[in-house]
Amino acid sequence: PAGDSWGIFTFLCAALCNLPALPALNCSEELGTSQSIQKTYDLTRYLEHQLRTLAGTYLNYLGPPFNEPDFNPPRLARAERVPSATVDLDLWRGLTDNARLAANYRAYSRLLCYLRALDGQAGTAELRHRLGHFCSSLQGLVLSIAGVMSSLGYPLPAGPVGPPAPPGTAVAPNDFLKKMDDFWLLKELQTWLWRSAKDFNRLKKKVPPAVVTLRLEARGF
């Protein structure tokens, strides 16, 4: 009947007008976690793209042999201060989500300190600009990882996260070794970002977006 149809239409209009006040529309904590993980994943991919351009520019600034495609030197003891991403993949995947997130947080915090030192030493305005922009993006990644850990209920790693500076090792003894330090910094950063993208891609599959349901309550009908 026409009267019943009009009543249903009136009910739906009244319910839709009151949607903003319904508690069921609030985003759940799970949805926030999923979005945070997605944002962090997107940021790692963006940094990978940025680093390809930055590394090429910086290695050209260092000159031969560092900008040669087949240059693959052995890792020196000095470079061990830079956090290494060369961990067996099966061993890495066997870690808990908390352990991997903590390792990522510590590594990028230290790498960021080294990159900021490069920023102050770069010899051209263009290179300083690129390094400064990359450092800002990497700082955003550190904060984003901290946000993911917090949303999952994990504590941030305790203790200092900056690079250690043992006596006598803060400055390279010659220009070639200083360039070698810079080369390994960029190489390790590239590997960390590649692996982190895989980490966060797997993590976002574990925390799927929450399904938001609408509950319409009849008021006065």
Structure description:
One of its GO terms (molecular function) is cytokine activity. Its main location: secreted. This is Cardiotrophin-like cytokine factor 1. Belongs to the IL-6 superfamily. Keywords: Cytokine, Glycoprotein, Secreted, Signal. It is a single chain. By secondary structure, this protein is mainly α. It has one domain: Up-down Bundle (Growth Hormone, Chain: A). The chain has six helices and no strands. The radius of gyration is 25 Å and the shape is globular. The C terminus is likely disordered.
Give the structure's gist in a few sentences:
The chain is 63% helix and 0% strand. The chain has helices spanning 2-17, 29-62, 89-93, 97-121, 125-151, 175-206.
Write the layout of secondary structure elements.
Elements: H1 2-17, H2 29-62, H3 89-93, H4 97-121, H5 125-151, H6 175-206
By CATH, the architecture is named Up-down Bundle
- Average pLDDT confidence is 78
Number of helical runs?
6
Q: Compute the separation of the termini in Å.
A: 18 Å
Assembly context of the chains: single chain
CATH class: Mainly Alpha
Q: What percentage of the residues does DSSP assign to strands (E)?
A: under 5%
Please bin the fraction of helical residues: 55-70%
* Number of distinct beta strands: 0
Organism: Ramphastos sulfuratus
GO cellular component, one term: CRLF-CLCF1 complex
Subcellular location: Secreted
Signal peptide: 1-24
Task: Give structural attributes.
single chain, 221 residues, mainly alpha, Growth Hormone, Chain: A, 6 helices, globular, cytokine activity, Cardiotrophin-like cytokine factor 1, glycoprotein
